[in-house]
Amino acid sequence: MNQHTPGPWTQRVWDYSHATPPRKELNIENETNLIATLQCDFPGDNPYIIPGDEARANARLIAAAPELLEALEDACLTYAVHGEQPPEKWLAAIAHATGEQVPA
Hints:
Layout: E1 10-16, E2 23-29, E3 34-40, H1 52-81, H2 88-98
Antiparallel strand pairs: 1-2, 2-3
Helix pairs in contact: 1-2
């Protein structure tokens, strides 16, 4: 498995309303690292800036990613303990998250 930055990940809002151009940034970070930055609430027609509500929803999902992956891996282990195969969709999601080849 490829290593990702250890969780938990949190989100922090930086308000640059007095900057030119004014904007807000949502940073996804753990205790020591910046994971990602989403810019939002940018006035104008820039297609690369996500509207505020959508950016906040994306930030919550990104921040929850390590916990979601761990929970899904735990659920797959529970299936294995009982001699059952976990759903293919679960295995594909884990492979996608870890950079492994998605099962056929």
